User: What shape does this take?
Amino acid sequence: MKLAHSLALLAGSGLTDASAISHFNKRWDYDVCLNDCSLAGVPIPDQDTFQLPLESFWSEQCPPVVIGPYNAPQAISRVCLTYSGNALHFTFAPFSGYTFISTLVVWKLKGNLLADSSTWAPPPPTNPIDCSPGDGGVYICSLPFSSILGVSPSTSTLDLLKGMCPNGDREGLDFYLQFTGLAAPDSGGPAVPFVQQYPCTSRAADRSCTAWNNSIQWIEVAYRCTNCNVSPCQSSTTTSTTTSTTTSTTAPPTLKTCSFGTAFGYQNPVAGNPKSITLNTQSGQGCNRWGWYETPTVAELRGGISGPLYVGAGGNDITKAIDVGIWVATANAQGRVTVTYLLNPPYALAEVHVNLVCLPLSKCAPGQYTYNAGAIPNLPTWSNPTPLVYPTCTGGSTAALIVHAAVNILTVTTTCPAPKAV
Ligand SMILES: *[C@@H]1O[C@H](CO)[C@@H](O)[C@H](O)[C@H]1NC(C)=O
Assistant: This one.
């Protein structure tokens, strides 16, 4: 997603009130909801709830794609699903060591998860969506709610949300999806195809996939809805709000860039075992602060790992943190690592810092990490252009990964509030 597109989404979604910032809470909140008090309490699609019905409703926001054989891939990456504006977006994170040439999403709506199965459309997915390059090597494709629902693009946001959340504050719709494309190795040579990984049928204790159903070429993805948690409109201003993003002809508001705070990548626990360790367990320079590191093996990185990006988790309290986006880390066959950041609007990247070193950590100050991009001009996505070497650690040490970003917020305000827990 280009910045101009993010800004258009922001402007179109009616962000006309500086106080919108105060409505941001811990949970990721869909931008359309946050920016429109008239949607308070309305069920909205929740991007924290994507599940794979063919895999016993496994929770997965970023399903895998592979180069090479499905059971011994040369490279694995991920396609992350997010909601913003009146659309479902697919962001292809780059394969480590490859550059995308083209990406394709093919989709079909299966139907309402809770409706009678006789109403469900049969597979396979048949509708292609074109994708375009985003910043930092990603490719992005957008599927408007109006296309999903087969209604006019001028349908009101409220009616689109009713269609996307036909059961209210619970299960939503189910899609057939297939991701494919072409990627060129950075080392030269011909472009290679990549395909959707088959649905996983068996998982090891560490939850990595050990068997796949290779008789079907697509996956199913479903989501749940949650009620829009924005402050209701004051009665005197109710009539001045708008839920339409398509008919407005007023000039977009002037957006100001405010520093929002420091983000650290977090990896959710797997089977009850924590995957993120707090930085303050390390005695290195500057480590007595909030934030986390992860300790993925190179095999885990080859499978692609991902998690939320949290801002404002002072005291490492994720219940107080703001979920501003997703990170994905992948390794190629040589164990070289690419980290991709994907921010939810209205957040944007100012700086990205990735540390990939052996424990113990000698320093935690982001400016001294393995990879530093210091002047990113408010972009929604970023990846390190040159893959990072996975370190060889000796003496029982393991490798640590720190995913850090300085995050801005684009908002309508005259004075920026103080950044969160920096
Ligand atoms: C693979 O998926 C198909 C279609 O859903 C199903 O009929 C079949 O039983 C599955 N096979 C395995 C091994 O799970």
About this structure: The chain has a mean pLDDT of 88.
